[in-house]
Structure formats: C-alpha cells, structure tokens
Design brief:
By secondary structure, the chain is an alpha+beta fold. The protein contains 12 helices and 18 strands. Helix 9 runs antiparallel to helix 10.
C-alpha cells in the first residue's frame, strides 16, 4: 500500500501526517509523496492565448507581477495546463522561495503536490457541466469552481468548529447561482459519512453531487501524474524574463514616448497608434502580452476624446462607508467603469450584502478570500462595476 503524507504548520513548526490514518510521522517514514499546505500557496487560473508551447512560461512569468505581491527574486511558481470546454488554461501555484525550500527539505527528494494535482486528471470527465470541486482538508477547504461558460476560479477557507458551520461558510463564498452547479467533494474516510448526511445543506444539485475518499483518490496516482516544483520545471521569475527582456524594453520605450505626447495632438497620436498596431499584428505570437497594453492605450484615447471621467473621490468615500473598522486597503484599481479592490479585514463575506444596497455599485463579486495566519482577518479581492449616469 502506498502512503501519502501532508503537512500542517503551527507558527514556524511543520508537522507531518499520513493521509490514511492522520498519524503523525517524521520525514524518515516511508511515504511516496507530500501534499503541501494550500494556505501557503496562491492559486491563480489564467486563460492562455494562442501562443506556442515554448512561450507559455515566459507569458506567465510576465503576468505574475500583477497577480502576486512578492519580490520577483523571492517568488517561485509552477503550473499545470488544463484544457476544458474548448479553452486552454494555466493553473498557477505561487509562493515564496523560502517556503518551498522548507517543503523540499521535509520531502527529502519525494514529489510535492497540492489538491489540484490529484483532481487534474478528473476535470475533463465533467466537461460541459457547471462543476465545483471541494477538497475538504482537516484545517482548510479549497474550492475549484468551473462554470461551463466562464473562467474557472479557486479560493480557500479555514475550517470552523464543525461541518455544519463549514458548509454554511462555503455557501456564502460560492457564486450566487450555485444551485446550477454539481459538487464533487474529496474528504477523509472519517468525514465522508458526516458530509454525506450534511450534503443537503450545500446549496448545489443534491442529486448530482459526489463524495470521494481522499485516500482512494490518492491510490489512483500513476507515473503520468504531474507533480509540482520538480527540478526540471522549477523556475524563478527573474530567469524566465530574460527571453522577453529586449522586446519589452523596446515596447516600454515606445509606450513612454506615446504617453508624453500632448493631448492637443490626439489626432496625430491616434493615427500613429493605428500604424504601430498594424505592425504589431504581424508578430502577435511573440508579443501577445504587449498587445494587450496597446489595446489599453486605445481605450484611454477613447476616454480623452469625450468619455465622462468617473470621480474617484466619490467612489472612495462610498467605499469608506461600506468597509468595516480595521479594514486596510492594499490596492484599488479603477479602469473605465470597473473597479478592483484588494484589502485585509474581518468578515468580507458580509460586505456583499452591503454592496447590494448601494446604487453606485453593480455586479459586485467576491473573487478571492485568503485567511491571514494567526488573525481573524482575511485578504480578499472584490470586483464590480461603477454605475454612472
């Protein structure tokens, strides 16, 4: 029988346990692979453009700067490719180099994985359906949401005192139209019976839900399973950017030049931009990430040519009345009629009801919740639309 282990962290101490009986072990025990704590990794799912396979890593390393707040030289990531519903995605696993080093030391050369590693091969079985995969760990729950016609997302929640409270918390975090989704749950043998009895509290299609044992799923791991952060795939962000360095430098120089043009010359500026865009279209397979920045310039030009600007002070004032005391805004992005807010504070799920009462905001979604270690606060990200006259 193959044994698989998982790690729990308390403060600076890492403890090692077996999946089949939750027995605590040390790194000398004979186990095949180690599951890292999802609390220490950020998971992002990006749709891939039509670019050659050899360009994917460079494209992802360029995108990570806007997705993860860490320093590039201290950041590591790996990814798995996913094809579902006729689209291609990259599932990114991002963390700090020091954290990864600790796990590799504990694993002692054995493979590393996260919940999506064992779910990866099962996703296409449910293609064409609205699916939610729930990985029910002892200390946390990871949700991987796959709407049929929308981009997939992932989020994580800390466990509460009992399964009833856990299910209620999951319901609040899932999409509003959750009743159209089918749930596929992975849990320990000990909690499988409890979840079977409590599945009716989960606001999904009860008759279509499935509950699987984690140990049984792990037993299906084969040599073809793609583990994470293997030496041949592990990349540092600085090293990966070298391939695009010259091209990006040239495009940034051109972007600075365009931005410095006087607004009164906007007609000349617009024509120059069109000519430059026509030239870029001949090499989109190599500079797809830069093309998106050029498109942004066109949108900004449209705003200069007559669109009414949104008053940011009004928006920030309204946000101040919504956010709870002790909430700290990490970033706020306002582009056209849309905004993105990232903040640290208590009970972000309760904010969604308050947003519904505010006429200024529409289509508000809570797209990410990450618990803060040793704190009652959480890092959360909210997106929405600004309703203007």
């Amino acid at each position: 029988m193959n044994n698989y282990a998982y790690v729990e962290r308390t403060g600076k101490e890492y403890s090692l346990f077996l999946f089949n009986n939750d027995q605590q072990i040390d790194s000398s025990y004979n186990f095949q692979a180690l599951m890292m704590s999802r609390l220490e990794f950020d998971v992002k799912i990006l749709e891939l453009p039509s670019i050659p396979a050899k360009e994917i890593e460079g494209f992802l390393s360029y995108k990570i700067n806007s997705l993860y707040p860490g320093q590039p030289e201290e950041t590591v990531f790996d990814y798995l490719k996913l094809n579902i519903n006729k689209k291609k995605y990259a599932v990114l696993f991002i963390s700090q180099k020091s954290i990864l080093n600790e796990y590799q030391k504990i694993a002692g050369g054995r493979p590393l994985f996260l919940p999506f590693t064992i779910i990866h091969s099962l996703v296409n079985k449910y293609a064409g359906q609205d699916i939610i995969f729930l990985f029910w760990h002892r200390l946390w729950i990871e949700a991987l949401v796959f709407p049929e016609n929308e981009a997939p997302t992932s989020f994580i929640l800390k466990r509460r005192k009992n399964i009833t409270l856990d299910i209620d918390r999951v319901n609040k975090a899932l999409p509003g139209d959750i009743d159209r989704f089918r749930a596929v749950i992975f849990c320990s043998d000990r909690e499988k019976e409890l979840l079977t009895e409590g599945i009716n509290r989960l606001a999904v299609k009860d008759e279509a839900s499935e509950i699987h044992s984690i140990t049984e799923t792990l037993s299906k791991i084969t040599k073809k399973t793609e583990f994470l952060f293997a030496k041949k795939k592990r990349k540092g962000l600085v090293q990966q950017k070298i391939r695009l360095q010259i091209l990006i430098a040239v495009m940034l120089f051109l972007g600075v030049f365009l931005f410095k043009k006087n607004v009164n010359q906007k007609e000349v500026y617009f024509q120059d931009l069109k000519n430059h865009l026509d030239s870029l279209q001949k090499q989109t397979s190599k500079v797809i990430s830069i093309q998106s920045e050029i498109d942004d310039l066109q949108e900004r030009l449209a705003i200069i040519k007559g669109k009414k600007p949104i008053e940011p002070y009004l928006i920030l004032s309204e946000l101040a009345s919504i956010l709870k005391p002790g909430t700290k805004i990490q970033s706020f992005i306002l582009e056209k009629n849309y905004f993105q807010l990232e903040a640290v504070g208590p009970n972000p799920l309760d904010l969604m009801e308050i947003f519904k009462t505010k006429a200024l905001f529409g289509n508000v979604k809570l797209v990410q919740i990450v618990p803060i270690k040793d704190s009652d606060k959480e890092l959360f990200k909210i997106t929405g639309k600004i309703n203007v006259d």
